[in-house]
Amino acid sequence: MTSGIYRFTRNPMYLGMTTLITAWACWIGAPFPLLGPVGFVLYISRFQIRPEERALTSLFGAPYLDYCRRVGRWVPR
Prior knowledge:
3 helices, mainly alpha, 0% strand
């Protein structure tokens, strides 16, 4: 997929989850809940996104690496 939202971010679902968790933490209005989004990003990057990217690189090779160069993991480049 290189069209639609995938033109801007490689992980729209995780970006959406992070946005939702951040909004919830801000709504609470205390500093401690803001650790939730930070923890989520660190965890999901390490244990979900990087393994997915390794698998996609082995499956699709150069076209996927080109896509990675054009589109940011979390936000547009």
